[in-house]
Amino acid sequence: MRVLGVDPGLTRCGLGVVDGGKGRAVRCVAVGVVRTPADAELSRRLLGISDEVESWLDKYRPAAVAVERVFAQHNVRTAMGTAQAGGVVALAAARRNLPVVFHTPSEVKAAVTGSGRADKAQVTGMVMRLLNLEVKPHPADAADALALAICHLWREPMRQRLAEAEARAAEIARVHKARLAAAAKNTGPKKNTGVAR
Amino acid sequence: MRVLGVDPGLTRCGLGVVDGGKGRAVRCVAVGVVRTPADAELSRRLLGISDEVESWLDKYRPAAVAVERVFAQHNVRTAMGTAQAGGVVALAAARRNLPVVFHTPSEVKAAVTGSGRADKAQVTGMVMRLLNLEVKPHPADAADALALAICHLWREPMRQRLAEAEARAAEIARVHKARLAAAAKNTGPKKNTGVAR
After folding, report:
1. Whether A47 and B94 lie within 8 Å, measured CB to CB
2. Does B112 map to a domain?
3. Fewer CB within 10 Å: C terminus or N terminus of chain B?
4. Which of A41, A43, A51, A52 best tests the B interface by mutation, with the highest count of B CBs <10 A?
5. Which of B10, B43, B49 should we substitute to test contact with A (largest number of A Cβ atoms within 10 Å)?
6. d(CA A180, nearest CA chain B) in Å
């Protein structure tokens, strides 16, 4: 399975394409970064990111897109720009009917390094080892995009199994509730007749 | 000039098209709301909003798009969704080469009611009066979208004049600095010869 990982941002948007093989085998297909000028209009910057992501989707044809989920940042303005960049990436994927999954930074760090609190250098180091890269991906956003793709490849099977298990549990609960309701209906009138002497 | 105002949101995205005439004359062309199901995938919801906004742009052909600027909200998750919805709207406009301007809620309230702290009911009331609407736009997001369009029509000429004045001032400052630098170059050596007796 091929995944496009995206570390969204207006100034730098990291892109990384990774192929997943048997077990934990992963292979780097492409890595890069989209930059948009800080003095350009917001809508123009979003268009620049969207156009570049669309050309990556056309060129590499991934089966899924993994985007970093933004919760909150110190700088609200930056967080909003990051969310907007992530939004246009998700839109481009949806237009091609591709599944888009958002992963939190700590999920990505935990998947790649084993620790949700790993620093940037540790993540980059593990990404280089896992993908057999001789040159450090630059800037860090590019390494983060590769880490996101790896995280998705490794977490997705588990996430799907979990979703299936939850759906089964919900179905069992639904059936059980329906039986209880039916039983209450049947025993209800008897109880009433018992009370009325 | 015709403006599409957008009050972005994933659950409800308000849309309002307003024509501006001479002075402060405004006329309502269309008003509505796009809803996307809360249980749908985020990327699908963004696609639903994008498709609807694109069809409005094609149908009403506005000259500009005014979007509410999100700063921060109590609920970070909601704020991110709002930012993402606003991002795909800005993208749709940029694809059609339309200018997109973001206005803050207090700018909109101040433009329409005269007070940046007006409440929803006051904004809706003034929108109805200004546009001669007999029926209250529902939901509130639809009224907000109309208010955004009106705000844009009334603020834009002033905003452009301000930008032109700032550009002129920057140019004057640049010329003045260049003259000072040239003068310093010419007087510099004289001063030095004066010090060296």
Report:
1. yes
2. yes
3. C
4. A43
5. B43
6. 28
Per-position DSSP letters for B151-167, written without gaps between them? HHHHHHHHHHHHHHHHH
Query: What is the Cα–Cα distance from A181 to A194, expressed in whole angstroms?
Result: 20
pLDDT single digits (tens) A86-114: 999 999 999 999 999 999 999 999 999 99
How many domains are there within chain A?
Answer: 1
Give pLDDT, residue B161.
83
Query: Which CATH number belongs to the domain containing residue A106 in this structure?
Result: 3.30.420.10
Q: Hey, which residues of B are catalytic here? A: 7, 68, 141
Which two three-digit tokens encode residue B156? 């834009």
Contact A87 B90 (CB under 8 A): no
pLDDT in tens, B114-136: 998 999 899 999 999 999 999 99
Residue A128 included in any domain:
yes
B168: amino acid identity, one letter = R
User: In the 8-state DSSP scheme, what is residue B40?
Assistant: S
Contact B76 A80 (CB under 8 A): no
Task: Name every residue whose Cβ is closer than 8 Å to that of residue B92 and which is 6 or more positions away in sequence.
Answer: B50, B53, B54, B57
User: How many Å apart are CA A18 and CA A144, to the nearest integer?
Assistant: 12
Is B141 annotated as contributing to ligand binding? yes
Amino acid, res. B75: N
Torsion over CA: A178, A180, A183, A184 (sign): negative
Taking a C-beta distance cutoff of 8 angstroms, is the pair B102, B89 a contact? no
Tokens of B133: 């609407």
Spatial CA neighbour of A160 closest among A94, A101, A92: A101
The nearest CA of chain A is from the CA of B82 a distance in Å of: 9
A51 annotated ligand-binding residue = no
Nearest by Cα to A89 from A13, A175, A169: A13
Asked if B102 lies within 8 A of A42 by C-beta distance, the reply is yes
Look at residues B187, B15, B20 and name the one whose alpha carbon lies nearest to residue B111.
Answer: B20
In a domain, A84, yes or no: yes
The residues of A carrying an active-site annotation are 7, 68, 141
Contact B42 A102 (CB under 8 A): yes
Chain A residues within an 8 Å CB radius of B66: none
Q: Residue A47: give the domain boundaries.
A: 2-161
